[in-house]
């Protein structure tokens, strides 16, 4: 008997499988987008109402403080929650201590007390502007916590200690609930986000290098890419700091991330210098019709671009460097076989070769660190020092002054209006002036919070008097308040509406949550609503009126700070100077990027060009100083020291005359260095060639500074 043919699947089964595949795909997509947001909302609500329940059980005076703490600490990852919680508790302790000290010093003198508070808030806000990370949040807390404790104690100074202890207890309770919920229930580890950032950074940089080497990107777009890379460097450092608080994040991993960031900055700076040289050569070729140096260098860049398209394993990196050495030898042979290059062309060629070799070495170090991180290999790396933010002093001073002025203005309003609820306005104005001091666009941040307050006003009133008032125990209270708080948490999980969600959540936490002895007073409720909103509006107006141009990332302040960093490169101690200089310049460019938004205007792009030129100039100056420190006395060293003296004079008092004097000194130094090459031993010869490369970079960068436009270089050394 013949076997019966295999049964064919019915149309119903095929359709069912298609439906299941579609549902699976849609579910996976939802889980990675909206699903994560709703998990975040669920965890935030669990932490909030757990803290509220415990606050009621413990009989705390202000249960809403514990709930408000959990709302403020609701962050996307467990590392970010733990980091912010640590600095919040630290800031609360310091702020309460400051309030106790100030009230003890000025117990019966409100004017002196508010002057002391204004000075304290100014110092704390200035510290927040200086650090611009979660440490800055600790400064902010120390400032406004002192105001929250001392202001109610103006008429009753004997209650200040009780207020301080209660505040620490309530904040500590909220911190514990947030930390436990976000770190235990469906934890979202920040270390994974850091590794995704590392992978994106590496892939983005390699792709950028290929496009530049193949001339598939304009100089203007290249500058904007450097601006974004500066922001990426700051973002990775911030992410590393948050991941540090998670279990399993070791000190060695932190050192590897530091080294990765440092290697990235080194490779990026070398590549920028190489790109600028190539751009100048192409500009010269366009004007002259042909350029022998470009004809020799272009194939080297093309071969390197081709090599970068492959996965940069250790073997391929070694192969790339060997191929580059062979290409350079062939280019030198081609140069020797043709007509002799003039001095300017020879310098350009030697500089291009030096930069290509240096970039290949920097890229190899960068790739090794990347593969060690992604493959979770422990690497022995020297700690290059962490990325350090650098805020211009004028911004720090303006932030402190604005916060102090806001406190004094609202305190005067409290006195003249004789409206008890104005205390809320004092607190809100002080809080948001301090919080927004580290933001590149403070008015946008404060306006979002103000929108959240305005949306919350009618919703909070309805929830309080139509729903919460009917709750006879804790569980109906949760059902009554949950929709409003969940709505705020959902908004806060959106990058676009995050400020609105935080404002809505803070407003509702202050007004909707009942105390242990609840009083439902419509007049008092509306008065509190108006005063809270008025405080945020005052903060917005202060940013608009008081020193509006003295905000983080303003291009004029960034340009001044960049110039100051170039001055520092000439005179500061050499130990780790190159790393510090790179950190600070990149941080200033990161501030500029954050303030400029997605479409920088022409003035911002001009500051970017100046910053990148000063970065190239500063690196060359530091290298030159290192070479001088390692050199013996002689004509070459004397000429290099003269170059440094004149460059220092130019950077401290820029003028056309001082710039021309520095250019002439650079040309003379080049002559002296080339004269010393004849009888130099191999080690010194390598240093002298590096000096020639640095002189060439300084010369062309200085020409850019003097003219404001990129110049085709003339003989620099």
Automatic annotation (TrEMBL):
Residue intervals passing through the bilayer: 38-56, 89-106, 112-130, 137-154, 160-186, 421-437, 449-468, 474-491, 498-518, 530-547
Keyword Transmembrane: yes
MF terms (GO), sorted A to Z: transmembrane transporter activity
Membrane topology, as annotated: Multi-pass membrane protein
InterPro entries for the chain: PHBA_efflux_AaeB/fusaric-R (IPR006726)
Primary localization class, coarse: membrane
Gene Ontology CC terms: plasma membrane
Pfam families linked to this entry: FUSC (PF04632)
Coiled coil location: none
Keywords: Cell membrane, Membrane, Transmembrane, Transmembrane helix, Transport
Keyword Transmembrane helix applies: yes
Localization, UniProt: Cell membrane
The name this protein goes by in its record: FUSC family protein
């Amino acid at each position: 008997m013949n076997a019966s043919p295999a049964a064919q699947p019915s149309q119903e089964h095929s359709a069912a499988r298609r439906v299941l595949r579609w549902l699976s795909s849609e579910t996976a997509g939802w889980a990675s987008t909206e699903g994560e947001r709703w998990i975040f909302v669920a965890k935030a609500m669990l932490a909030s109402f757990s803290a509220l329940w415990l606050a009621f059980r413990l009989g705390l005076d202000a249960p809403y403080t514990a709930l408000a703490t959990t709302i403020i600490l609701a962050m996307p990852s467990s590392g970010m929650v733990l980091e912010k919680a640590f600095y919040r508790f630290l800031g609360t302790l310091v702020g309460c201590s400051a309030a106790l000290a100030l009230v003890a010093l000025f117990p019966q003198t409100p004017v002196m007390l508010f002057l002391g508070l204004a000075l304290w808030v100014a110092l704390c806000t200035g510290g927040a502007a200086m650090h611009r990370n979660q440490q800055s949040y600790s400064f902010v807390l120390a400032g406004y916590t002192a105001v929250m404790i001392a202001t109610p104690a103006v008429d009753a100074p004997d209650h200040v200690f009780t207020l301080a202890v209660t505040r620490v207890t309530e904040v500590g309770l909220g911190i514990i609930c947030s930390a436990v919920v976000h770190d235990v229930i469906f934890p979202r580890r920040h270390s994974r986000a850091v590794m995704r950032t590392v992978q994106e950074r590496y892939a983005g940089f390699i792709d950028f290098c290929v496009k530049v080497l193949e001339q598939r990107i304009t100089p203007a777009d290249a500058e904007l890419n450097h601006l974004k890379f500066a922001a990426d460097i700051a973002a990775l450092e911030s992410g590393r700091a948050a991941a540090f608080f998670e279990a399993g994040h070791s000190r060695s991993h932190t050192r590897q991330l530091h080294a990765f960031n440092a290697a990235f900055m080194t490779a990026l700076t070398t590549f920028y210098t190489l790109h600028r040289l190539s751009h100048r050569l192409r500009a010269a070729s366009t004007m002259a019709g042909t350029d022998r140096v470009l004809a020799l260098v272009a194939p080297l860049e093309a071969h390197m671009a081709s090599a970068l398209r492959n996965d940069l394993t250790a073997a391929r990196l070694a192969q790339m460097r060997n191929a580059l050495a062979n290409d350079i030898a062939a280019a030198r042979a081609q140069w020797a076989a043709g007509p002799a290059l003039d001095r300017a062309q020879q310098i350009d060629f030697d500089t291009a070769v030096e930069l290509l070799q240096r970039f290949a070495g920097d890229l190899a170090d960068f790739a090794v660190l990347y593969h060690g991180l992604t493959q979770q290999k422990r690497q022995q790396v020297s700690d290059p020092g962490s990325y350090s933010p650098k805020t211009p002093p004028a911004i720090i001073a303006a932030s402190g002054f604005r916060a102090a002025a806001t406190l004094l203005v609202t305190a005067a309003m409290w006195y003249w209006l004789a409206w008890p609820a104005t205390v809320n306005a004092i607190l809100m104005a002080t809080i948001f002036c301090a919080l927004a001091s580290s933001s590149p666009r403070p008015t946008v941040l404060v306006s979002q919070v103000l929108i959240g307050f305005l949306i919350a006003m009618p919703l909070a009133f309805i929830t309080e008097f139509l729903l919460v008032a009917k709750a006879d125990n804790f569980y109906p209270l949760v059902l009554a308040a949950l929709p409003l708080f969940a709505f705020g948490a959902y908004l806060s999980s959106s990058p676009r509406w995050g400020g609105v969600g935080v404002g809505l959540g803070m407003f509702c936490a202050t007004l909707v949550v009942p105390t242990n002895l609840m009083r439902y007073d419509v007049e008092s409720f509306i008065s509190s609503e108006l005063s809270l909103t008025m405080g945020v509006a005052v903060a917005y107006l202060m940013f608009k009126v008081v020193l509006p141009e003295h905000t983080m990332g303003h291009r004029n302040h960034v340009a001044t700070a960049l110039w100051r960093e170039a001055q520092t490169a000439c005179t500061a101690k050499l130990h780790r100077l190159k790393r510090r200089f790179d950190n600070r310049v990149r941080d200033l460019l990161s501030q500029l990027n954050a303030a400029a938004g997605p479409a920088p205007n022409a003035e911002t792009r001009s500051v970017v060009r100046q910053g990148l030129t000063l970065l190239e100039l500063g690196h060359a100056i530091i290298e030159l100083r290192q070479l001088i420190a390692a050199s013996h006395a002689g004509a070459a060293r004397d000429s290099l020291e003269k170059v440094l003296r004149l460059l220092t004079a130019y950077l401290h008092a820029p003028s056309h005359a001082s710039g021309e004097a520095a250019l002439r000194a650079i040309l003379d130094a080049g002559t002296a260095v080339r004269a010393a090459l004849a009888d130099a031993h191999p080690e010194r010869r390598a240093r002298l060639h590096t000096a020639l490369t640095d002189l060439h970079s300084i010369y062309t960068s200085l020409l850019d500074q003097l003219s404001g436009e990129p110049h085709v270089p003339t003989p620099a050394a």
